[in-house]
Amino acid sequence: MRFFDCNCFIGLPMNGMLKPVATADELLACMDRAGIERALVWHVAQRDYAVPTGNRLLAEAIAGHHDRLVGCWSIMANQWGELPQPESFCSQMAEANVRALRAFPELHSFLLRGESCGPILEAMMRRRIPLMLPMRDGVRWENAYDLLAEFPDLVCILSEIGTWRAERMFPALMERYAHVYLDISHYILDGGIEAFVRKYGGERLLFGTDFPRRGQGGMMLAVKHAGILEEAQQAIAAGNLERLLAEEQL
Amino acid sequence: MSDQTPIKPGSQLAAEFWEKGRSESCPIYNMHGHPGEYHSMYMPRGKPADMLPAMDAAGVKMVCFAHFAALNCPDIGNRLAVEAVRAFPDRFRAYLAVNPHYPEMLARDLSEYDSLTDVYVGLKLLADYHKVRLSDVRYRRALEFADARGLLVLAHTYDGSPFNGPDEVRRVLDTYQHLHLLMGHSLNAAWEEAAAIARDHPNAHLELTGAFGQRGAVEVLCQGAGSGKMLFGTDVPMYGQHQAIGQLLSADITDEDIHNICHRTAEKLLGL
What we know:
The complex is a heterodimer.
Chain A: E1 4-10, H1 24-34, E2 38-43, H2 45-48, H3 51-62, E3 69-75, H4 86-95, E4 98-103, H5 105-108, H6 114-127, E5 131-134, H7 141-150, E6 156-159, H8 171-176, E7 180-183, H9 192-200, E8 205-206, H10 217-224, H11 230-246
Parallel strand pairs in A: 1-2, 2-3, 3-4, 4-5, 5-6, 6-7, 7-8
Chain B: H1 12-20, E1 28-33, H2 48-58, E2 60-65, H3 68-72, H4 79-87, E3 92-98, H5 103-112, E4 120-125, H6 127-130, H7 140-149, E5 152-158, H8 166-175, E6 180-188, H9 191-200, E7 204-207, H10 217-225, E8 230-231, H11 241-250, H12 255-270
Parallel strand pairs in B: 1-2, 2-3, 3-4, 4-5, 5-6, 6-7, 7-8
Helix pairs in contact in B: 9-10
């Protein structure tokens, strides 16, 4: 079974953690050990320090590893021009093998809405660039609902949804918006994968680990032995993310 | 990469669990379960009968649980726990759930305990949710009962909690030396303190629900207290068993440690 991890990070968190992974080389060594082929990776400095520098650190870290590491940058409200304008930003993404974006609106003090982030969100919709919403890191469910109401065609990955009390939050978004996906890194509900596949099919779940905050083996084993068809297991393990990224028009 | 055992190359247990989903040599006792309904969570496998296929798939021999109704619904109390265990006596055991707000109910339940030893393995305390400190007089009767009989007491324990944080856990252990305190969630996330308490008290044990969620926690507990003090648990049917097994396999511990955690510690405590 091939695995493509949609959610892992490198870098040293400001407040420490038990077993951080500082560099891309360390990440690749852990991926090799676990048996994970590719990963969509962000840099913790994007969250803890500043988006522009964090994005740069991520690009530098994964340079030379584009065969296995795909970058995830962060965005924010850009009225002060701290980030390049959307078209230039997208060009830089392509050059750096960055194929997804995430946002930390509560921590970074902006509203993830059209009034403040319209240009980049519209560019993302046009180019089908996925937006990862890290629900554990300060994105509230109301934010996700409001954002999708305003940008219904946004490719959106609900990420780190938390290990409980999310089961009644995400289904309405799945049902209303065709391009919403679920990163399963925190979706450890007993029977959760099976229930989701029964209701929504296997094309909208993405294998993720939230490594190194969480270990890699948990969701690997959960997918491998989920009570679903092997075809669906492989789609979740890697195929769905590969398809998503192939549909992108950077 | 493609020829090696995923998760942990070189581990026989990893190979077995990867290939089959379960291990014949490493059965699992899940010491922390909560069947039933829960107000803020959808659980597709909430009924005890619905838990069995996933238990079989993961090689979980037995789940020891406190029924959610017993914890959250005094109108129902422990009745559903008794029914569930008696319906599947080879697969389930229960903790008698203690609600400190209903002393008459507790007195009645404790008076019936000895006629239900085929059901119960001990008591369950949920101080954080019942908002009563473990050291409060309202828990005294239950703790004295457990201590007199050397019962297991699965207590929810969490870092920073005034009800069941490290200080409260130490108070219980300093007062009662014959009960076996299973520190549910191992004082999430005060791992070093939890390990120290388990090391310092022969009757303290570390139950791992939630610990799997932080990479490195299992190693801290293992290094600090030893795997012989650790117990597998997942809050099933809230959280799946394969994901917990996978996290355990990912941890930097030996296959012997995993055996201890998955079954040997539980077998000793359950007298199996």
